[in-house]
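Prompt: For my understanding, could you write out one protein's sequence and backbone structure tokens?
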Amino acid sequence: MKILQTIDEEAFIAKYNLLAESQRPAQELRRDILCLLKETRQQGLEAAEKMLAQDGGGTLCARRISHLMDVLIHALYNFVTTRIYPVNNPSMAETMAIVAVGGYGRGGLAPGSDIDLLFLLPYKQTPWGEQVVEYILYMLWDMKLKVGHATRNIDDTIRLSLEDMTIRTSVLENRLLIGDLALFEQLQSRFESEVVAGTGPEFIAAKLHERDLRHQKSGVTRYLVEPNVKESKGGQRDLQTLFWIARYFYGIRSSEGLVKLGVLSRAEHRLFNKAKDFLWAVRCHMHFLTNRATERLSFELQPDIAERLGYTAHPGQNAVERFMKHYFLVAKDVGDLTRIICAALEEKQVKNVPGYNQIYISSEPHKRKLSRGSDFIDENHRINIARDTVFQENPVNIIRLFHLADKHGLALHPVAMQQVSRSLKLIKTDLRENPEANKLFLEIVTSPRDPALILRRMNETGVLGKFIPDFGRIVAMMQFNMYHHYTVDEHLLRSIKVLSEIEHGTLEEEHPLSNELIASLKTARNILYVALFLHDIAKGRPEAHSVAGARIARKLCPRFGLTASETDTVAWLIEQHLTMSKIAQSRDLNDRKTIQDFADIVQTKDRLKLLLILTVCDIKAVGPGVWNGWKGQLLRTLYYETELVLTGGFSEASRTERGEKARHLLAQSLETWPEEAVNAYIPLLYTNYLLTVPLEDQIRHADFIRQADTQKRTVATLAQPHRFEAVTEITVLAPDSPRLLTVITGACAAAGANIVDAQIFTTRDERALDTILISRAFELDEDERRRAERVGQLIEDALAGIAHLPDVMAKKIKPKRTPKTFRIEPRVVINNSLSNKFTVLEVKGLDRPGLLWELTGVISDLSLNIASAHITTYGEKVIDTFYVTDLSGEKIASTTKQNNIKRKLLTLLNDETAAKTTAQTGN
């Protein structure tokens, strides 16, 4: 008991007795007792936090806090029943049992946990019971505790337990705190005989269904990078669900009973306790750190929790990433334990109940042989092993199990998965190099059915990481940023899933070009699937993961049976897997040099097709909301423009001819205009505009400009939603000015509009025609148009001087996150080789509200003209690219001026590190 004490209990009791025995008025006495209870609890929590830091025992910390609460409730009950509502000769109706239920009943509390209490009263009651309960509850509430409470007699408790599964689960974990022992024991006896007996399958089905609903709500994968420690898949609630099931079905009072019953081995029981201890430690630290019941392990908390738990950085991974990898490995262990206990329940022949498909056993199970030597059987549409020695007899059977599951479309029997997990030691070099095993594995990865599903099962059982050790290194690995929503292994499996969906045509509407191209790549299917499976396999290493990944691919592909040519292509795809996305999102796709440089990298049309599809799958698998139609449009534009170069369909020499043709087409299209109006308008347009902007947009712009001129408006805006691309275009017509883009970006920021691209054009009469693309906010076009028109009005007001942007920005922009959470080294690259006409400024740093406005302001102050801006955001990191010239229209060639540009931009990005940061220049 001493190990659970966080306070000097003898000293506390002495203080309590001294107060309780005094003859002071009840109100004064209540105040002083309440003060003592609050101070004692605070002292106990502070001591528990120190002890947690010293011994690291999460379970022990939870038990200590629970014990502290026990002591306080004992004292409170004694105070109420002896001083406030004393009964000298209590009758049977004037008894009570205070029972801890739920989490508190298990004897474990986090600092901010609810205190779940059942005030158990006899069938016949007097007002005394209600008075005592009310007084105790008000005291607990005045202590600022969250109390989950119920006041019932035994009959009501049994009836409600039969009706409500939540109440039944709560009462299942009961513990007498103080009061009438006989009353408590009667509840236990009747609960076991009237509620639990014979209802095991019903309870298990309900708990697993409840778990599935909870997973859907909190995220169906256990690999979300900001998990809810209590509710997410692989978290505390899953462990508790396992124990509830075991407690209910087997009648055990502790997890040790699972070992005695043979459900868990000693090693697996140690895993159970380690997982429980780790999750308790994390959760208690989170509550202590935030001083509230925080359950989501957010980015803001992760560095502090990692530090509290003693994690340090290693090459390729910082302390936070190492901590979170441990967390996700624990979550995976929880999944392993779930399968083991489910398998044991099946062996006990739990009867099938309606809707209970998680653990399914029929009275006469259907079985059929699946393979040679009858190593595997189909048992109720799930693959199982025919005997326990199947894997020991032939380790290739470990891979064959998953291959047959895919081939026959079978789920994996929990018994088979349990045996696989217990046979991982058989996966050694001989099996990894076995040609048959690798042939089967390649067929799994490239399956025309659902390869991601089988690979996930292989990963969950630990087979994938053992068979491919390089994959094992990235299992449960997270990247500490807001861009990646999943761990690296989960991302790879999701990218395989996206590719499979594209191949099956289920994503045709969202990815039309990829859907069209994949049909022409039937002979290259293996290349594409293997490249996706391996593209991030080298994450977490000191060197660039694309380069290291290509090297790993050159080692693994021959093992899988790929030819030398196929291996080269896979390695190339991995080395270049970020290239197309980067160019599409951060380069001017209307610049001939951009397309030519990319064509030089790709070289062949087949590589272009493969890289496009791989890029789509990669982005789509990053997480919800990362992919959008605008990124798809950029990738399609880059593909089509590069295809023209690769097939010889584009020539720089024809630029003048194409410009004249574009003028003629536009003139013909303005058929409703008077001839003199057409003749006056067409000469105003520069060739670059005519070759860059699609004809339908040119017509729309022409009508827009003509209407503005008719209305004698010097400043005007036009909104056009684009549903498929998930962006909205705002066209701005205004007198040309070096600070025009700065005003536009500031107005967009003030209106909460996120700019993704900007194209700046001018006319020969010194007006600017700027096209701004903002992220779409509403589903319906009419709603989105109204919103864009409000943004446009703010732009007009700002340009007219009606709205003072700094004031508007100060009122409307709120910080998204504390910048202290993430550290990004600011970087400015000035490059004169990426365009024949412009200097390209690439600015990388930590995103913040209004940053684009600030950047364009500094660029204008530096007397630079911006021709186009391309905005790319990766979570908290922003990479903004500007195509600029000096005021005379020339590139920035002067080293002195380049250095001045870097210095000013770096100062803006991060004053503290600007002087220390070395920007790179590619001239």
About this structure: Residues 491 and 621 are 6 Å apart (CA to CA). The domain at 819-922 is CATH 3.30.70.260 (Alpha-Beta Plaits). The mean pLDDT is 89. The first strand starts at residue 97 and ends at 100.
